Amino acid sequence: MNLVFFKIISVLLYLISLLPFWILYLFSDILYFLLFHVVKYRRKVVELNLKNSFPEKSVADRLDIEKRFYKHLSDLILESIKTLSISPKSMKKRFVFSNLNELTKYFEQGKSVIAVSGHYGNWEWGPLATAYELKEKVLVVYKPLSDKRFDNLMNTMRSRFGAILVPMKHTLRKIMEYNTQPHVLVLVGDQTPPREESQYFINFLNQPTAIFLGVEKIAVRTNKPIIYFSINKIKRGYYECLIKPLVEVPNQTKEFEITNIHTQVLENIIQKNPEYWLWSHKRWKFSPDNLKAHHD
Question: Which tens digits make up the pLDDT trace of 84-99?
Fold first, then answer.
């Protein structure tokens, strides 16, 4: 991207972030109308994902979920921009942990923890809120964007309160760097693995789904306790994170056990309030059958 254009966009985003929430949500309402009715951003992808995930629901019910998803997506986009300038006080008020002791109890024992989450609720506010609440280091594993300037901008937003952004390929190196001090390693468990790494499929949301095994591999190798960050939307602009202990001793589990556990937790969360998951993501790019055909 042209440097001048990028700087203009960056300044514009920062100025938007300075607006009060009530104005941001007016923009969000307009954005929803544009995304859903005018641009129809990935409407076919969302419709197909919902149809395959909830075949038992009526067309009207799925359309209702679809509309609520696009309203949430619009909120999420504006809330993400807000991270450029949101105050610690505002973040603490709008993103709360209902049982933070389920995480800090491990730090008191001198242990580090792996926290798993998904593209659900407001996952962009999660690293900011966690880093603000804890005195321990918060390492957030992410997949770098192809555009380096926007990648740096996103990292600046996500690390404002002290979170340390870790590119996926550097995860183990960074863990070793902080191995002597208690920390939390945040991993997103619903990423789509590359075709060549799609070795394990699970029935997720009513269809065979390739699951990224990174969470399990890292957990077994480091033997850090695993918890789940369940981010619930309380109302517009307000979220609550419930911490669920998943696995205490990862290296004593069977193969794929950890993967099955955290995937099932996410599925249960989605089924309860499906509109808050990222349905516009092309999550089901391939199935076991077309992978087999590809290899043949």
Answer: 999 999 999 999 999 9
